[in-house]
Fold:
Amino acid sequence: MSFLKYILFFLCLCAGTAGFAQYPSNLGGIKASQISDSQLQEYMQKAKSSGMSPEQMEAELSRRGLSATELAELKLRMAQLEGAAGEAAGAAEQPAANTKRTAPRLVAPPYESPESLKKRSRVFGSELFSVSNLTFEPNLRMPTPKNYIIGPDDELILNIFGLNLSQQTLKVSPDGTVNVKYAGVINVNGLSIEGATALLKSRLAKYYPALGSGQTKLQLALGNIRSIRVILIGAINRPGTYTLPSLASLFNALYVSGGPVENGSLRNIELIRNNKVVQTADLYDFLVRGDLRGNVRLEDNDVIRVPFARLNITLNGEVNRPGIFELQKNETLADALEFAGGFKSRAFRGRLTGNRFADLERKVIDVSGDSLAFFKPLSGDEFFIDSVINRYQNRVIIQGAVFKPGSYALEPGMSLKQLIDKAHGLKEDVFTGRALVVRTRQDLTREYLSIELKPLIAGKETGLLLHREDSVVVASIFDLRDTATVSINGAVRQPGVFRYEDGISLKALVMKAHGFSDHATGMGIEISRRRRDVDVNKAGSNIVELIRVDDNKELSAGSADLKLMPFDIVTVKEDPFYKKQISVKISGEVLMPAVYTLQSREEHLSSLIQRSGGLLYTANVSGAKLIRKKKEVVDTAEVRRLFMATSRDTAVINNRQLEKTTTDVAIDLGYILKHPGSKDDITLEEGDELVIPRINNTVSVGGEVFKPLDIMYERGKKLKDYLSDAGGVTGRAKESKAFVIYANGSSASTKKVLGLFRRYPRIYPGSSVFVPQKPKREFNAGQAGLVISAITGLITAVAVFMR
Structure:
């Protein structure tokens, strides 16, 4: 059963017992310290046998108004008592030789909200009491301290060994006495372990004579320990009375109470015993140096007082641990920097700037770097440690045609020759005519100095003396001229532009292009070369020189070769007598649909149908169409723009049609089969596909009709009849623009005869009828104004004329 449940049981059980008279119905003023350990143990026993639900107990607790702080402390004590009871029960089941020491477990205090922790995080040392994995539990496995003061409820283990063997567990009574076998009742209250050992040895000497000779030895150890009460007052997060293990120390008590408040002192914590200050603890000794001498062990009824800090300063900026630090009266700003972990590597140490509260206003204070050890801050001072400026006091830079370009340290009297030597010398491609030194003046303007490199290379002089932040640029010969290229295109495997190298030849360039392609010819290779003697005043002057090379495709030494010049363009021609196969496809209602290779470049549709075995009886001859690849790329964005500019209705432009790589060619296959070889018998091209659809006896009606659907074809039926079968046109339809798309891809629209009578297109099986939408008319205020102005002018003219 959880500790909270015990507490709730206890509070509800109190309502029905005589003992509850001590606890009024309003628990807002009740302190957990007013409840004794014996009372808590009694109510815990009753809670275990009670049948009341925890929800009922919690409602009762809330109704009676017990504060959350007191509830937390009461819960802590319940946990301590239950832990002690469990260990005692386990010890009863163990042999007497088991001397394992137990005590109430020190439970971590409830932690503050994240917002509160953010405020506390600026105070150096506050994390000591707000980190969840830092428990500060007393060490119960430590050897029994000889100066441990025995008190009521302690458990002592008495071992006698040697010539005589005996072991006893001695429970210290509330009167401070123990009942020792043979020796009887002995008062050990207030004695140390060492003193009690001597007392027991003297009392048992007559019963164990060998104790005097040393042949029998006596050992007194601490078993289960008692609880003590300490009081924490002053600048504490949760002041009050706390029940702790008797081995608890000062740090344990501070941890349980939540530590000092934000402006509480961590350096002058007083331990008061018998109305006297017996210890003043400085937590900075532990935080900075790990010194635990101030962490003394507590005794029953000790008082811990935490005063408010008298001297707090703030350090921000380039220190390892920015925050708020507490100083003693004799400590300086250098000590505060030590608490902050010292300067960061990029900190400016020459001067610290700070703010100080004066009587009426604030003022700025400056502390030089050499006086940090003597400057004593005042409470409330804030110091900012800035970083060094982003400038170098001894840097020079060299870049360009040197082996190790970069930044180098400027030495006294350093010359340009010495800097070049530091950069491991000049490269082979260095331009020896001139180098450039960019110098920064005192007013940060720049000065450009030109230096001759030839005397430096010859060793005749050392060159210019360098200044701080000088930048030396040594040019390469390749930086001062255009990069020459040669180009090759045509029937090679990888056409392109290549860098010109001295001595490159035609064969070498072809090899760079990965050789001739399969359809290349070595005859008639053209080299276009720039001319530098163009007569610009003569019309028709040649601007290039054309060089023709006749050769085969062998790249051996016996074939023709020619040395190229910069910017030559080589064109390798295709073999005119070499042609690739042309493949076309026929699909649909033919006897043998497949991909066929044309016998000649002039083979026609009729020949392809004949080679495929002819048409099946199910073939829709009028619906046959030819699909052909587009020969050139169209700017679809521009086409859409033109369509949108010229369109007068709201029919949606099919963007997918613009993005297709093929186009449909409308053909009259019936006429072609009757007249093979005629002008309608189309000559086939690479990638063509002839599609012969199956007979379709329906007509599709779509667009602005009430019921788009497919209707069975009937001979003699007109377009208006099909529109009527689809429920007629809607109010938004533009019936005069209705059109028909036939199965072979061709289309026909409604026309007017003599401008009066409409002639609708004929309908065939497989046709699709589409009725577009009326265009949306947008109001144009400008045009309306012009019309109104014109009408007004006309009326005015008529009125003047009628006078």
User: Anything to note?
Assistant: The chain has 19 helices and 37 strands. Residues 10 and 43 are 5 Å apart (CA to CA). The chain has a mean pLDDT of 78. The radius of gyration is 53 Å.
